[in-house]
Amino acid sequence: MRSQLNVCTVLIAFTIFPSWTYDHSYQFNASDIFELNYLNELVDPCDNFYEFTCGNFEKYHPLPPGENVWDNFYILQEQIHKIAKTILQQPIKQTDAVSLRKAKSAYSACVDLDYIDKNRPRDLEIIEDLDGWPIIQDIEFETINFDFEDIAKVTSKYGVEFLFNFEVVPNLFNATENVLYITADNLNNAGVYKKAKGETDQKLKNFSSSAFENFLQKVVQRARHITNRTPTLYDRIWHEIQQITNFTNVLAQGGYANTSYGTTVVIETIESLQNWTNTHFGEKIKLNWLKFINIIVEPTGTKVINATKIMLTSRSILYGILKLFEETPPHVLKNFVIARLLLVMAPDLDKEMRNYHREFYNDHNLTLYERPEYCVRKILDYPNHIGFSYALANEYYHNYFNKDKIILITDIVDKIYESFIQLLYEAEWLDEATKQIAIDKIEEMYLLLAFPNWTVNQTEVDDYYKNLRICSWDHFGNSRSLRLLRMATKLSQTSNIRDRQIWSMSPLEINAYYSSQSNRIQLPIAMLNPIFYNGFIESFDYGRLGMIIGHEITHALDNQGRYYDKFGTYAGNWWSSNVSRTFEERQKCFIDQYSKYYIPETSNNVNSVNTVRENIADNGGLRTAYYAFIKSEATRSRILSKYTPEQLFFIGFGTLWCSKETKGYLYSNQDSTYPPNRYRVIGPVSNMKEFAAAFNCAPNSSMNPQARCILW
Q1: I need a labelling partner for 377 at 20 to 30 A (CA). Which of 24, 74, 363, 698 fits?
Q2: How many domains does the chain have?
Q3: Which three-class secondary structure state does DSSP give residue 22?
Q4: HSE on the CB side for 483, CA within 13 Å?
């Protein structure tokens, strides 16, 4: 029965293909290509190619209740979630890797709400562990001490950062070495709730003060009850709650920032940072940076020294946060830290706290996942982190994935790179010196495909998770362990030499990502599935996965990536003045083109200044993929269809971006860096004369304009 379940789960993602075997003699019928159902053939592709390719998408994929956008990225991510959920729900087997057993135990503990609810309140444990919460204590606040060392100990124990965020990144001006990046607290409240595409964790600063105050009122009253405190005057509690929210609001603005201290990026040693801090604050804040940072990174097994390099967003922000700390009474700092801990941990506590948490999110029209879905996402900790993703990716690769695809995909990757480099050779507007530097950068680029190589080996995956404490009965403790794993993942390279091949995203995430500071692309195994890639229909594979790879390569030479060298060092403008001038002119062409695209749902046009980087990448990606497709043997047709291979390439591209959005989603994303999906199709195809030729579009028709924008 279990093997049947596994097969059914795989078929969720691959139902449109007749066989798992790569039989290249098979002649496909149009009925084998499910996405052809999305086409609205009543529309002339030369008038509106998006409507032609996606006009019937909603018939087959209606917007699910509670969602504000639905497209192929979401659909495949849901299929990956179902597979992950199937794996996690299966009983632990003797043959399971130790890391997979831990993941299953963590999931089991997460969904066991009855056990969670009948046990001693774990928020009481937090309050007791931190020697009380001043807001519920009947003590003189002047007796409370709470300094940077105390804050660091809370971060080290619970995996939640306060005042500052820490991350290891490449040195902006020398990407061969790592630096410890210290930024202002972004106040992320990393709740597991439904996010729109491209949306990051909501920040506490974006939540209304009234909703936060309402949450705190309920939590404070509960805390007084479970700690058996006598009633306190309401006015006193309300005053302390307002102090917490006021502190949060000021922190969200960078504290008492002062631009006179500088607004540019600073790279220096910890010793230099300490000297600056001593000069401006002396003993008033008692901040020993070396001790403070070492307490935070201690769980990662690393250590910093005075010579360790750090990078600051600016001294202005640093000054502002330290000044806020200096002027805030210790009891308010401690109240804030515990309040923030309880908000982060609320979904992992008992029913009463979960309800308070749900009400807090409901106040902001945010939808929380049902418990099983919440737990899958909690255990995997993506999209922004790793969690147990490596353990699940190992199981997915060995039992749910056709390994032959990796070889075929590698061939497409090679052809896409060759195609882009050929476009550079043919770019007459580049002088020879700039052209060679650009080609060198592309040739030096890494593409991390599927997953880290070591995750194929179960022993190495087990070793990665060996220090992660997981108990099948302790969801609260497991959640803390996962947060500490997150901290260790982002800080463990503090004292190491830079390694551009270390993954920074989950292999189970539906996304591809180019990093300018690493000059590398990450393409997770989850992306190597239909609708992006199937291995049977080459025209679709090039129009979809090929275009996505080309899109990411193009980012290396877009309006931001062009300022970084082949290793990821910020090199400034290494282009000649004439080439830079031409680049700006060609970029302006895209800005002007996309600014004319009207969004009727919002009564506004595309914000083309914001979207220009992605527009450049979309156009470069499609051109690169098309020329790779034409030069490959993929143009031979094995499909009994009325469409030519060239037409199917563009149809594959168009159907990739089919989407259904609510008016509210489009309105809230007016200033996004991405245009609406319809224009991610219309814009690039109207810039390609090859598209017009493939569909025999009349001159000056909508998709065959007289003027076109081309960069790469």
Answers
A1: 363
A2: 2
A3: coil
A4: 22
Q: How far is 365 from 408, CA to CA, in rounded Å?
A: 44
**127 plus 249 within the same structural domain:** yes
Parallel, antiparallel, or unpaired: how do β-strands 69-71 and 659-661 relate? antiparallel
Q: Return the CA Rg of the chain.
A: 27
SS3 312: strand
Give the C-alpha separation, 212 to 217, whole Å.
9
Q: How confident is the model at residue 11 (pLDDT cuts 50, 70, 90)?
A: very low
At 145-188, the pLDDT tens digits run 999 999 999 999 999 999 999 999 999 999 999 999 999 988 86
Tell me how far apart the alpha carbons of residues 299 and 295 are, in angstroms, rounded to a whole number. 8
Which residues are CB-contacts of 227 (< 8 A; sequence separation ≥ 6)?
Answer: 124, 127, 136
DSSP 461-490: HHHHTTT----TT-HHHHHHHHHHHHHHHH
Which one-letter amino acid corresponds to residue 351? Answer: K
Please indicate, yes or no, if residue 592 is contained in any of the structural domains.
yes
- Indicate whether 406 and 297 sit together in one domain: no
Helix (H) or strand (E) holding 169: strand 164-171
Integer Cα distance of 10 and 8 in angstroms: 5
Instruction: In whole angstroms, give the CA distance from residue 546 to residue 322.
Output: 49
* pLDDT beyond 90 at 476: yes
Contacts for 408 with CB less than 8 Å, ≥ 6 apart: 22, 535
Residue count of the chain, please give it: 712
CATH code of the domain covering residue 616: 3.40.390.10
Query: How far apart (Å, rounded) are the C-alpha atoms in residues 478 and 56?
Result: 45
CA distance 337 to 154: 8
Q: What is the mean pLDDT of the chain?
A: 89
Residue 312 sits in the same domain as residue 410: no
Instruction: Compute CA distances 350 → 117, 338, 345, 481, whole Å.
Output: 5, 17, 10, 18
Residues 343 and 440 reside in one and the same domain: no
Three-state SS for 499-538 is CCCCCCCCCCCCCCEEECCCCEEEEEHHHCCCCCCCCCCH
Q: Give the torsion through C-alpha atoms of 322, 326, 332, 338, to 10 deg.
A: 40
pLDDT tier for residue 132 given thresholds of 50, 70 and 90: very high
> Is the same domain home to 269 and 224?
yes
Mention every residue, 6+ apart, whose C-beta is less than 8 A from residue 642.
30
**Which pLDDT belongs to residue 7?**
24
**Which pLDDT value is given to residue 13?**
31
Does residue 147 form part of some domain?
yes
Instruction: CATH number of the domain at 322, please.
Output: 1.10.1380.10
Q: Is 254 left (phi over 0), alpha (psi -120 to 50) or beta?
A: left
Between the CA of residue 228 and those of 47, 224, 253, 457, 642, what are the distances in Å?
Answer: 71, 6, 37, 52, 77
**Residue 79: inside a domain:** no
524: helix, coil or strand? strand
Enclosing domain of residue 172: 118-368
- Of the pLDDT bands very low, low, confident and very high (cuts 50, 70, 90), residue 634 is low
The CA-atom distances, in angstroms, between 14 and each of 9, 24, 637 are: 9, 17, 21
Distance in angstroms (rounded) separating the CA atoms of residues 487 and 483: 6
Q: Which residue type sits at 197?
A: K
- DSSP, collapsed to helix, strand or coil, labels residue 305 as coil
